[in-house]
Amino acid sequence: MGLSTAERPRAERLQFVRRRSKSGVVILGVGALMVVVYSVVFKLLMAHEVADHSWATAVYWTVTTMSTLGYGDITFTTDLGRLFSMCVLLSGIVYILVLLPFYVIQYVVTPWLDRRRAARTPRRVAPTLRDHVLLVGSDAVTQAFAARAERCQVPAVLILEDIALAGELHDQGRQVVVGPLDSAMTYRSAGAARARLVVSTLSDTANTNVAFTVRQAAAKVPVAVTASKPVSVDVLDLAGADHVLELGQVLGREMASRVLGSTGRFHAIGSFGSTIIAEAAARGTGLVGMTLGEALPLLRSRVRILAIMRKGRLRAMTPDLRITDATVLVLAGQEDDLARYDAQFQSRAVSEAPVVILGGGRVGRAASRALSDEGVPNTIVELEPGRVENSYSVLEGTASYAVVTGDAADQRILRRAGLESASAVLVTPRDDDLNVYLTLFCRRLRPELQMVSRATYERNVATLYRAGADSVLSYATIGATDLWNRAGLSHRVLVAEGNELFLVPRPASLARRSVRDDEVRRRTGCHIVAVLDEDGTLGYDTESIPSAPGKLLLLGDRHAERRFRETYLGRRRLGRRPGRR
């Protein structure tokens, strides 16, 4: 069993202490060996000079010479002996320069600094703090949530056991509380009863304990936890969790929902109230070759085109923008409106082309189930034999998946999996290096193929896009977005890694401006894609921003969001306290 997120920093610190202790023993061992060797050589050289000294005298001379004391009561008379004395002296100086700093720093300075850091790391939050989010543990999900909370000025407090890690995060400006995760006093000190949500992203067993403990400190606060195994969901629910997030299942479904297919039909990726946000490929529809200005009057439904993307990049919504086979439309509308869009543009003459899924882990299997439920045939390529059952049929018996065992980096294996006739490839392994390799490999084999890749670390997202991915999704962003929405904060829909749809209050300074205002995009990088009324209704025909209260729907990355809030909102605090489920 792997280490949990909370256990990992502690284990790493223990390993560091062991390595430090081992280094100290090695240094002492080297010193003892030098004393023994030099004492033996001293005896031999003194015997050569016809001088007899005891072993105690030999050790005494060696230590006083290495330490540079050199009383001068015992000396050599030959050149060879004097050269040996110089060698002992110089090596002793070097040894002392290594020995003293090591022990002073490791056993005096470092513990003193750790005690100072521990003393100033908070054990409780201010009594006036309320409507905050408590994040138990520190992993990619909680760090992404905390960074988003900082941008929106929503208080988020990390609860950690590891004092050194807590001190580092505290020095970085994060709000931190140190204490045992299995003590109700820790959560009382963190103001759990006044919090809007408690989030725990530890192992399934640790999350169970956290949920029980939080319920002792605050019976009514909503608790959201992550689960790595489906069998843990019921146990965590019994422990008191209000929301259990299966990250592997959610990421797999989200990756499957980004498969655009080969018929041009829409794929729902989220919603704002009753308004559904969807993606649709232009490929295979009559929109290919038209400009945006020519296509908009053809829409027979009230569907609104929020944005246009190519290869994961947003394009400016200008009337002369040409729609190509690689164009992806981001749509918004009611369910009936999107159904009419499908009826107008979806190609009924062809069936959905199959999808190849690289990796048969939790994410790959979840993506396969989601595609099969939609009637999309798919094939899983898995290196480990027997990890995935060979085939199954969904409830209606209309779709199934196949399994090809072998290396996904082998062109022959991919050919057996049907890469040549596939409409998309999902790259689902946990290893980012492998994902970059597979993305680039498949892109070279099929340049026109849609590639949806998984990222474990945010720093590799840009690399995956450069390797040829059309869309990138990660645990951190998927988990942080789900938990953010669960906390009742400003609702978000993830379009792709680095691009989110989010709501902000309408700034008075933007009243009467065009929804497609280029100045806002140039100043902040955010695209204003729609206007919502106070009741959350999307304004389909609104071309200018009303002065009445309401919200704007923006599309952009975290840097663009930060610039927009600083420029137009003065970093206002958003969100309402949610009720318990």
Task: Please outline the helices and strands.
Elements: H1 7-48, H2 55-66, H3 79-120, E1 133-136, H4 140-152, E2 156-160, H5 163-171, E3 175-178, H6 184-189, E4 197-200, H7 204-217, E5 223-227, H8 232-239, E6 243-246, H9 247-257, E7 266-272, E8 275-281, H10 292-295, E9 304-310, E10 313-315, E11 327-333, H11 335-345, E12 355-358, H12 362-373, E13 378-382, E14 401-405, H13 411-417, E15 424-427, H14 432-445, E16 450-455, H15 461-467, E17 471-474, H16 475-486, E18 492-496, E19 499-505, H17 518-524, E20 527-532, E21 551-556, H18 558-569
Parallel strand pairs: 1-2, 1-4, 2-3, 4-5, 5-6, 12-13, 12-15, 13-14, 15-16, 16-17
Antiparallel strand pairs: 7-8, 8-11, 9-10, 9-11, 18-19, 19-21, 20-21
Name some characteristics of this structure.
581 residues; alpha/beta; Helix Hairpins; Rossmann fold; 6-stranded parallel β-sheet; 18 helices; 21 strands; 42% helix; 19% strand; disordered N terminus; disordered C terminus; RCK_C; K_chnl_dom
Stated plainly, the CATH topology of the largest domain is called: Rossmann fold
* Count, helices: 18
Looking at the overall shape, the CATH architecture of the largest domain is: 3-Layer(aba) Sandwich
What is the number of independent domains? 4
Radius of gyration: 32 Å
Form type: elongated
How far apart, in Å, are the first and last alpha carbons? 32 Å
Strand-pairing-aware structural class: alpha/beta
The strand line-up of the biggest sheet is 3-2-1-4-5-6
CATH domain class name of the largest domain: Alpha Beta
Main beta-sheet annotation: 6 strands, parallel
Kindly report the average pLDDT value.
83
- Give the uncertain stretches in residue-range form: 1-9, 392-398, 572-581
Question: How large is the share of residues in beta strands?
Answer: 15-25%
Chain oligomer state: single chain
Instruction: State the helicity in percent bands.
Output: 40-55%
CATH superfamily of the largest domain: NAD(P)-binding Rossmann-like Domain
Q: What is the tally of beta strands?
A: 21
Membrane topology: Multi-pass membrane protein
Main location: membrane
GO molecular function, one term: monoatomic cation transmembrane transporter activity
Protein name: Potassium transporter
